[in-house]
Each structure stands twice: as structure tokens, then as C-alpha cells.
Write a structure and sequence with these properties.
7 helices; 4% strand; MerR-type_HTH_dom; 55% helix; Multidrug-efflux Transporter Regulator, Chain: A, Domain 2; elongated; 2 domains; HTH merR-type domain-containing protein; DNA binding; DNA-binding transcription factor activity; MerR_fam; 3-stranded antiparallel sheet
């Protein structure tokens, strides 16, 4: 079989082989993620566009590599848009770096607002500050490196991270994803 153009549509079997997933998982994801919309031809045969494949790759990464739940990934897609998941799927770190930069600017603006606010009451955070933050909850994997997660993967009350720590972890994740992308390019 000859290789297809990068812009060619892919069948479900080609996508399943490319992502190392069973076909039924892709069909199931279509029921859970409304953003996955392959072109359907006669007999229900599915054809995936290159952006569909990148979106699926991003969803796969969030579910299997990062440990997010389906609800967590749905929330990420709802709050950050499909371009975020596509950027993860393609390894395009510029979009992720831009999001990280905007998050840092929002944190800086929030810190300045809190510093200027009177001490009498707690100021409500600006609505824009949360707009670009990656959302969703990763499924705990056992006790983890620092003992978070409790027995059997249950997280306790103290296991929640502060917003600043989540942001720092997200920035570290983006750096690690960039390292992975560079390593994959050298192979």
C-alpha cells in the first residue's frame, strides 16, 4: 500500500493503527466528544481529516499520558477549545507557550490587583484570569512521587493544589512536552 499525502483523509482503521487504539475506542470517543466529527459516507464509513487525527492524538495524550478522565478532557475542550488539544496532538508548542505566557500575564495582573485592593475584604479574582487556564482534573495514579493521591488512587482533601502550583505544574508539563517533541524529531 502506498503512503498517503499528509492532507489525505484516513479511514478508521488507518487512524486506529496510527494511534495504536482499537477502532471501537474511536467510535466510543465520538459519543463522548462532540468535537470529533469524521466525515461519514455511504454505509457509515468514517473518514478522518488530518485535524481530526490531530485532535484524537491530543485527546489520547490527555487521557492516557496525562491521566485525565473523560470528563476532565471534556472540560479542557470546552474551556480551552479544540485548538489546544490539536496543539498537543501535533506537538506544536507555540500555542501552548502562548497560553503559558497569557497565564503568566494574568497572574501578574491579578497579583497587582490584589496588592492594590484594600485589606478589609478579599477581592474577587478578575474573570479573565481564569479564561486561559488549563482546566480539568487528572485521575490520580496511586500514591505518586510525593505521596499525593492516598491509597488506591483516592485523593484526600489536602491533595488539591493551589492555583499557582497548578500553573507551575502546567508550565513544567509544557516544557516536558517540548522536550518530548524534540526527542521524537531526532529519532
Amino acid at each position: 500500500m502506498t503512503d498517503k499525502s499528509p492532507d489525505a483523509f484516513r479511514t478508521i482503521s488507518e487512524v486506529a493503527d496510527d494511534l495504536d487504539l482499537p477502532q471501537h475506542v474511536l467510535r466510543f470517543w465520538e459519543t463522548r466528544f462532540s468535537q470529533i466529527k469524521p466525515l461519514k459516507r455511504g454505509g457509515g464509513r468514517r473518514y478522518y481529516r488530518p485535524t481530526d487525527v490531530d485532535l484524537l492524538r491530543g485527546i489520547r495524550h490527555l487521557l492516557y499520558e496525562e491521566g485525565y478522565t473523560i470528563k476532565g478532557v471534556q472540560k479542557i475542550l470546552r474551556e480551552n477549545g479544540i485548538q489546544f488539544a490539536i496543539a498537543i496532538g501535533t506537538g506544536d508548542m507555540s500555542a501552548l507557550e502562548e497560553m503559558t505566557r497569557r497565564n503568566a500575564e494574568a497572574r501578574q495582573a491579578e497579583a497587582e490587583t490584589e496588592a492594590a485592593a484594600p485589606q478589609a475584604g478579599a477581592a474577587a479574582p478578575p474573570a479573565q484570569a481564569d479564561a486561559d487556564v488549563v482546566v480539568g482534573h487528572a485521575r490520580p495514579r496511586g500514591r505518586g512521587l510525593f505521596g499525593l493521591g492516598g491509597k488506591g488512587g483516592e485523593s484526600g482533601e489536602g491533595a488539591d493544589l493551589s492555583r499557582d502550583n497548578r500553573t507551575l505544574l502546567q508550565e513544567a508539563l509544557f516544557d516536558l512536552l517540548e522536550c518530548k517533541r524534540l526527542l521524537d524529531q531526532t529519532r
